[in-house]
Structure formats: C-alpha cells, structure tokens
Write a structure and sequence with these properties.
The structure holds 2 protein chains of 2 kinds. Chain A is an all-alpha fold. Chain A has one domain. The longest helix of chain A has 31 residues. In chain A, 41% of the residues are buried. By secondary structure, chain B is α+β, with helices and mostly antiparallel strands. Chain B has 2 domains: 50 residues; 162 residues, no CATH class. Chain B is built from 3 helices and 6 strands; from the N terminus they run H-E-E-E-E-E-E-H-H. In chain B, a hairpin with a 4-residue loop joins strand 5 and strand 6. The radius of gyration of chain B is 23 Å and the shape is elongated. The chains are: A mainly alpha, B alpha+beta. Chains A and B meet through helix 4 of A and helix 1 of B.
C-alpha cells in the first residue's frame, strides 16, 4: 500500500477516482454552490485547503491515534481546520465569504474529506497524503468550476462574473459577458440544473473512459482493474 | 479488566489532547482575525449606507449613531436598527433596517433611507431568499427597479398608488414574480408611515442610546 506510485495518486484524484464523478461524495456543496464559476472556484479552493491540512495532520498522527478513536479525532481535526479557514475567509475574502455563506462551515460535512483521511491519509506517509489531498482537491475544484461555468453560461450568459470579489480588481478581465441582453435560463441556476448538469458530465466522463478503454490493449486493463480492486 | 480500563483512559487522553489542540488552533485564529472581521462588517454596513446617503451629506459616524426600535410597521417583533445621518448635529436622514416579512422566500431585509422631510433618499435590499432570475430583480445590481423609490413619499403617490401595477398601484412588477415586488412596496410604505409617526423620537435620543449601544458591544 505504501508504494502507491505518485502518478497513480494524481490520476486517481483528477480522473479515475474523482470525488464528484466517481465517488459521488460532497454533493451537497457541489450542487448548491456551483451556480456560477466564481462560486465554484471559491468553494473548491477552500475545500482543497482543508483537505490538504487534514490529510497532512492525519498522516502525521496516524501511528499515535488508536483505531477505536480515530474517527472522532479525524472529525476534530477537520472541524478545527474548517473553522480556521472560515474565519480566515471572513477576514480576508469578505465578499466571497458572504456569497458562499453557510457552505463554508458545511465543508465539515463533506464526506470526501473524512473519506480521504480514513481511506488514504491514515495509512500513507505524509508526502503521498499531501499529493492525494492536492489531486483530490483539484479534481473536486475542476468539477465545481466546469459545472459552475456551464450553469452560469446557460443561466446568466456570463462567465466568471464577479471574479474580482475573490481575487481583487486585477482579475476583472476574467469576467466575460457572452451574450448581451440575455434574459437568462432559470432552470440552469436552480437545483434541478445542478443535478442535470452533473449527470450529463458524469455520463460524458464514462463515454470518454469507454473510448479510452477501446484503444488500449486488453492486458493493461486487466492489470489496472485488478489493482483498483485491491485498493478498494 | 484493568487492561481494558487502562486502554480506555489512554484513548480518552489522546482524544482530549486533540480536542485541546483543535480548540487552541481555532481560538488563536479567532483572535488573529477578529479585528479584521469587525472592520469588514463595519465597512460593509458603511458601503450599504453610503450607496443611498452620500458621505458628503453627513458628518457624523453614521454606523455608530443608531437606535433600536420595535414596531409591527417595520415588519418584525424584534428590534429594528435605525441609522441616523446628521450634518453638524442637525438631522439629515434616517436609514431604517426594516423587513418585508412576507416575501416568497421569507424575510427580505431592506435599508430604507428617508430624508428629514419624509421623502425617500433611496432603498436597497440587503439580503433575501427570493427566486434567482425572477424575484431577485429587487437587487440594485440586477435591475433598476429599486431606484424607482427615490424621491417618493407618503404623498407621492398617495395611499392607493403604493402598490404594484397589477394591484392598481404605481410600481412595476416583474414578469413571473408579483409577490416579491408587492411585499417590498408594502414594506417601504409601512416604513414611511412609521417614520411620519415617530420622526422626532427617531432623531431625539442621542446620548442615552449611544451609550447603551457602547455597553452592548462591550458585552460581546
């Protein structure tokens, strides 16, 4: 287990075992916040920060904490980091904090974070755990941003509107208005739009995977699937 | 048996240790960020207030010169904050943080700025849970709707004009959303009524209430 290759960890987080598409974890914030690309990016970064901090700490203490109390200890660690991130965002990214609102404290309830602590960080050395957190976090952020972009384009006709709230005036070039006088398409912004969008994206990922599988020689697939069975 | 108890004690100690560490980290972050958060909140209030009453029109610390009142006309049975703008101690305007309690998605929090003579200096929606794309036209960033109140008063329009066009009033509704604009118009009308009944009292208490608010903030 400890000799998992770094390439595989990265691939797992970004694509093969993506939190949102494959593990289908953390849907509550994912669906609620992905109404615009900027919100998605903001929550993605916050989640990634918490994930890195919690994976690092859990990996650091993995030999001290006994199995019977590991879950409460992990929860304590995660909750502390989330509160710290929430306070920090309130202090330094006030506008974004107001937009994300309740979903920052709710990062605690994102099962993906406890999931990574339990499934990976508790059994692997620190560097691997940090890499796992980064790739899982980036994978999650990518889904948030892609889904947010699609919903924002269809719903509002803009892309990265109000990005300056998050990163300051210097990135106002990121905000694009694609259609002038666009009346908006409500379905995309409301929760059903999130479900439909996520479903279509997950389907698209499966199609791509199938296409890739067809191109590869069958032996490789056999080895890979065996390996992933062992892991899970 | 002894071994079991020993194990439990060790586990509990480890758990307790992490609780202390976690709490320590959170309280350290809290102390570090507290001044900045307070300042952000103050700036946010000031930004909202200055969007309707320009900083040139008053020279008092408007965000501190407040009173809290309870009146059903303001949409709540809880205390509602009123900010007072003054120029050289003379009253300029009152900004009432009133509520439209019957919005489609619950309370709609308003800032209703009323000049001393009773005309509206402006209205802003501070927060709401109306349907995105339909009811959120009440936000100043999304449409011009809320600017239609500037310069209005209890006599402009008269009683029956204070409604949406669908109900025979003077103000626009939105396509597909009548409830939201209707309740906002009603709330502004009631706020104006409250102001006309209590104008002198609103601007009267200065020292007493200012000091009361000082005490309250110290208790936090």
């Amino acid at each position: 287990m400890s000799n998992v290759s770094y390439t595989k960890i990265t691939r797992d987080g970004l694509w093969d075992n993506n939190i949102a598409f494959v593990q289908i974890l953390g849907l509550c914030p994912l669906l609620a916040v992905s109404s615009t690309a900027t919100n998605g990016l903001g929550l993605g970064i916050a989640t990634t920060l918490v994930l890195i901090a919690s994976n690092m700490t859990v990996s650091l203490i993995r030999n001290i904490v006994r199995p019977e109390i590991r879950i409460p200890v992990f929860m304590l660690i995660i909750a502390s980091f989330v509160t710290a991130v929430e306070l920090a965002m309130n202090a330094w990214f006030y506008d974004l904090y107001k937009v994300l609102g309740i979903f920052i404290p709710l990062i605690v309830t994102n099962c993906a974070i406890l999931g990574r602590a339990e499934a990976f960080a508790a059994r692997n050395p620190i560097p691997a755990s940090i890499l796992d957190a980064i790739s899982m976090g980036v994978g999650f952020t990518l889904v948030l941003v892609v889904l947010g972009s699609i919903r924002e384009i269809i719903g509002f006709g803009t892309l990265f509107a109000k990005a300056d709230l998050m990163f300051g005036e210097s990135v106002s070039w990121m905000s694009i208005t694609l259609f002038d006088d666009y009346s908006g398409f409500l379905l995309a912004i409301l929760p059903p739009g999130a479900f439909i969008g996520l479903g279509l994206l997950a389907a698209l990922k499966n199609v791509i995977d199938e296409q890739l599988a067809k191109r590869q020689p069958p032996e490789t697939i056999l080895v890979e699937s065996l390996e992933s069975n062992k892991l899970s | 048996m002894n071994a079991l108890i020993r194990n439990m004690v060790i586990s509990a100690t480890i758990l307790g240790l992490f609780a202390v560490l976690g709490t320590g980290m959170v309280s350290y972050t809290y102390q570090m960020t507290k001044p900045q958060i307070k300042e952000n909140e103050r700036q946010a209030i000031l930004k909202n207030l200055h969007a309707i009453i320009s900083p040139k029109e008053h020279n008092n610390p408007i965000e501190q010169d407040t009173i809290e009142v309870i009146d059903p006309l303001l949409g709540s049975n809880k205390p509602i904050k009123i900010y007072r703008a003054r120029m050289d101690k003379l009253p300029v305007a009152a900004i009432i943080n009133s509520i439209a309690p019957d919005g489609y998605g619950g309370n709609i929090y308003l800032l209703v700025a009323i000049r001393y003579n009773g005309t509206l200096a402006g209205v802003r929606v501070v927060s709401h849970h109306e349907t995105p794309g339909l009811g959120d036209g009440i936000e100043a960033e999304r449409s011009n709707w809320v600017f239609a109140f500037k310069g209005r008063s209890l006599s402009n329009p008269t009683d029956r004009g204070w409604g949406v066009k669908k109900d025979g009033g003077e103000f626009d509704q939105f396509t597909g959303a009548t409830i939201t604009p209707r309740v906002v118009v009603k709330a502004i009308y009631k706020t104006l009524k409250y102001y006309s009944q209590h104008r002198d009292a609103i601007f009267a208490h200065t020292e007493k209430h200012a000091s009361k608010i000082e005490v309250e903030t110290n208790h936090e």
